[in-house]
Design goal:
With 330 residues, the protein is an alpha+beta fold. The chain contains 8 helices and 15 strands. It binds 2,5-anhydro-1,6-di-O-phosphono-D-mannitol and magnesium ion. The site of 2,5-anhydro-1,6-di-O-phosphono-D-mannitol has 11 residues, from strand 5. Pathway: Carbohydrate biosynthesis. It comes from Pontibacter saemangeumensis.
């Protein structure tokens, strides 16, 4: 496994370059695209770090298409990522949580589609809690010109890469191209990401459960029963309310994150195309599992860009257990 050949401390650029060498016929476009995302991440990271100082926190006074308040930094992150992807030239179309329709970059020959939530958990910005960016990369199925709906509604198994950035006590970029998961930590004074978490494997079992227990009265019976089971087992409840941060902790420590259907969100809250699918590919690549309660997330066929989907994700034994409880309550 050549991942072992790349030592901790390897820069992200070098890592991407070395990975490309493993595929002699690769054109380098995916590598360039990953570098474009890393560049946009550095810019967004700078904006986030300065947010408290520059007075750019607080709401922007408008709502996004899901009727949620948009924060200024959501708008900034959206603009920064779109600009980087447009300038990079490898992407023909983008799906963003912040925009109703497909964003055409004008790169008619761009081979890739990016689906992203530019800044997730943005209600946490004002209180200095970790937030994140989530992205998925697909190869287009259409033959040039604008990206089509068909390009954008591909099954999660078709992702060629997926990743997230966590803006936490340090900033990290974690991604997969389908050969394991690697994590890079940002060194702000050098402006570089360094390999810090090579070949991440999630523990098979865990002792953390993460859900918004305030909604428990409207959870499906199977989830209620599973939460009682967690308490019987003396598991710890851990919920930040920032998907990337909750996911990242559970990925490293072992745990399960659950966003089930609720009274106010009958299909769950999270979005299949640019939240669930990306994290599902990452967790599977790290040895974990992702389900909607009964079906594997990656097998679901999206029908709408902003479609919501229940999410149960994390350590494989814990996800299996949740599915068992769900089945028993049917
Ligand atoms: P956002 O995309 O509007 O930022 O909302 C998504 C966030 C996730 O990060 C988090 O896991 C979830 O919403 C928390 O929801 P809730 O407050 O209902 O528990
Ligand atoms: Mg989101």
């Amino acid at each position: 496994n050549d991942q072992l050949a790349l030592p901790v401390g390897t820069t992200l650029d070098r890592f991407i370059m070395r990975k490309q060498e493993d595929f002699p016929y690769a054109t380098g476009e995916l590598s360039q695209l990953l570098r474009d995302i890393a560049l946009a991440t550095k810019i967004v990271n700078r904006e986030i770090n300065r947010a408290g100082l520059l007075g750019v926190t607080g709401t922007f006074g408008q709502q996004n298409i899901q009727g949620e308040e948009q924060q200024k930094l959501d708008v900034i992150a959206n603009i920064r990522f779109i600009r980087a992807l447009r300038n990079g030239g490898e992407v023909c179309a983008i799906i963003s949580e912040e925009e109703d329709h497909i964003i055409q970059t004008g790169n008619a020959r761009g081979k890739y589609i990016v689906a992203m939530d530019p800044l997730d958990g943005s209600s946490n910005i004002d209180v200095n809690v970790a937030i994140g960016t989530i992205f998925s990369i697909y190869r287009r199925v259409s033959e040039g010109g604008d990206g089509t709906l068909e390009d954008c509604l591909q099954n999660g198994t078709k992702q060629v890469a997926a990743g997230y950035i966590i803006y936490g006590s340090s900033t990290m970029l974690v991604y997969t191209t389908g050969c394991g998961v690697n994590g890079f930590t940002y060194e702000p004074s050098l402006g570089e990401f360094f390999l810090s978490h090579p070949n991440i494997r999630t523990p098979k079992k865990g002792k953390l459960y993460s859900c918004n227990e305030g909604n428990i009265n409207s959870f499906p019976d199977g989830i209620k029963a599973y939460i009682s089971y967690c308490k019987e087992q003396n598991y710890s409840g851990r919920y930040i309310g920032s998907l990337v941060a909750d996911f990242h902790r559970n990925l490293l420590k072992g745990g399960v994150y659950i966003y089930p259907p609720t009274a106010t969100s009958p299909n769950g809250k999270l979005r299949l195309v640019y939240e669930c699918n990306a994290l599902a590919l990452i967790v599977e690549q790290a040895g974990g599992k992702a389900s909607d309660g009964s079906e594997r997330i990656l097998d679901k066929t999206p029908t709408e860009l902003h479609q919501r989907c229940p999410l149960v994700i994390g350590s494989p034994d814990m996800v299996d257990k949740v599915e068992e409880f769900m089945k028993a309550e049917l």
